[in-house]
Each structure stands twice: as structure tokens, then as C-alpha cells.
Design goal:
single chain; alpha+beta; 5-stranded antiparallel sheet; 5 strands
Length: 265
């Protein structure tokens, strides 16, 4: 468990190894010929990260202290950690990653998930990509058939949760609209918790609360649910009542975007 003896000692060993990797001249300290420490000294890391040298020493000694997300990210910056390493450090300290970033540089307009959607353009069932704000990034032709023609919406309003809340088409296409809306709000709440410092996330909550009394009520109820496969019923304009199963695909390479695939139950 995060915070247990093994995790603390592993974090301490990891920080020592990363500190030894950083050359003093990389961060503006003179290298000097009398240095006995490989890499940075503990005191130097503490100063650069805005921490007490004693507190940082305790952290490297594996003592029972609890670094915040902000402290960990400050150390990641000072120690020049990769995103893989930053996530590992967060996991050791807290058991989960806060504010995950792409593992590699991804061009947002043509990211991996968007490309996967384009490869599925000929399928008969909806496939769309949505980000942590519920913004719709990409969708195939079948999505317009089963859900709505989101391309007709202003770009800033192309958001799955917003569509569920305000579009009359959502209530027409989804016979279990109330339960489906409750489900997506509960799922989004679990996602929001992973981005505690994201001001845009807070703005989205305020926006949805303003435009939808339903969202405001559901948000106050504090229901929460992790992402999982589930069944959704549709009133298809030509096929009539249909039931599909939804699966959400996530990739560590592009952690802010999920691929939602529909297939027959």
C-alpha cells in the first residue's frame, strides 16, 4: 500500500538514484573538483525544489512523511524526471498518478486515439474519442447515425456530457436517458478527482451546473463510479430499439483521451 515501509524505502532509493544522475552544472551549480557527492547534494535538491533540507533528507531516509502532489512535481522538475519516472514516483507516494501527461510528444489534432477512430470509419457501430473534459475529439460516421451529428455543433460545444444534458436529440436517441446521464456524471466525477489543480476542469463543472439543473442535482449527490464496460439502449432512427455494449479503451501514451467503442450485446 502507498505509504507503507516498502514504498517509502523504494521512493527513497529512487530519489537518491535520480539525484546522482543530475550534474551540478545542469542546474547552475559549479561542478568543482572537491565534490564527494555524485550528482547533486541533498541540500541543493531541496533549495531548487523549495523544500526544507531537513525535510528532504527525511524523505530520502524513508521516514514516514507524506509529500504532496505539488512537492513531487517540483522534485520531478528539479531531477529532470521523464513522465514514466514521475508517474512511478507518484505511485510510490500515493498509489496513483496525479495529472498524468503523455509519455511521448503527441500532436493533439492527429493523436493516436483520433487516428484509431479514423481507421474505424466504416464500421456500423459508434466509435468516438473523448478527453478528460468530456470534449469530443473525433468520431466515426456511425456515431452521427446512432447519437447525433456533432459536426453541426459549434466546436466549443462538442462535448459528450454537454450533449447529454442539453440536446433534445439525446433524450430521443437514449431511452434510458436519466440513468445514462447519472452514469456519465458519476464516471466523470471519478475522473475529475485525478486533476485537482486543473482550473479548466473546475470551469467545466461550473459551466455544466449553470446550463443544466439535472447536472447540478446529480453533482450534489456525489455518486461516483469508475469506468467499465456497460450496456446502453438506443432508439435508432431506422433500426428501432437496439442494445449495444460500450467499452472504454485507455492508453498510457495519451492519458487524457479515451476511445469509446460500441459493439452488439
Amino acid at each position: 500500500m502507498p505509504g507503507d515501509e516498502w514504498s517509502r524505502q523504494e521512493l527513497a532509493r529512487f530519489l537518491k538514484s535520480r539525484r546522482a544522475r543530475v550534474r551540478p552544472d545542469q542546474v547552475g551549480f559549479p561542478a568543482g573538483s572537491r565534490r564527494r557527492t555524485q550528482g547533486l547534494r541533498r541540500e541543493e535538491v531541496a533549495v531548487l525544489a523549495g523544500l526544507s533540507p531537513t525535510w528532504y533528507t527525511y524523505l530520502e531516509q524513508g521516514r514516514d512523511i507524506h509529500p504532496s502532489v505539488q512537492v513531487l512535481d517540483s522534485l520531478a522538475r528539479v531531477l529532470d524526471l521523464t513522465e514514466d519516472e514521475r508517474r512511478y514516483m507518484h505511485t510510490l507516494a500515493h498509489g496513483q498518478v496525479a495529472n498524468p501527461q503523455p509519455l511521448d510528444e503527441v500532436d493533439p489534432p492527429v493523436g493516436m486515439m483520433s487516428r484509431l477512430v479514423s481507421l474505424m470509419d466504416e464500421t456500423d457501430y459508434p466509435v468516438y474519442a473523448t478527453d478528460v473534459y468530456c470534449d469530443l475529439i473525433a468520431w466515426n460516421n456511425a456515431s452521427a447515425e446512432w447519437y447525433d451529428d456533432w459536426s453541426a455543433w459549434p466546436q466549443e460545444q462538442r462535448n459528450m456530457l454537454r450533449w447529454m444534458l442539453v440536446s433534445p436529440v439525446a433524450r430521443e436517441r437514449l431511452p434510458d436517458w436519466e440513468n445514462d446521464t447519472r452514469d456519465i456524471v458519476a464516471r466523470w466525477r471519478s475522473e475529475v478527482a485525478k486533476w485537482p489543480r486543473d482550473e479548466r476542469m473546475k470551469a467545466k463543472i461550473a459551466e455544466f451546473s449553470k446550463i443544466s439543473p439535472v447536472f447540478s442535482r446529480l453533482w450534489r449527490e456525489h455518486d461516483v463510479q469508475e469506468h467499465r464496460t456497460r450496456v446502453r439502449r438506443f432508439h435508432h432512427p431506422t433500426l428501432g430499439m437496439q442494445t449495444l455494449r460500450l467499452a472504454m479503451m485507455l492508453s498510457p501514451d495519451e492519458p487524457t483521451v479515451a476511445l469509446v467503442i460500441h459493439y452488439p450485446k
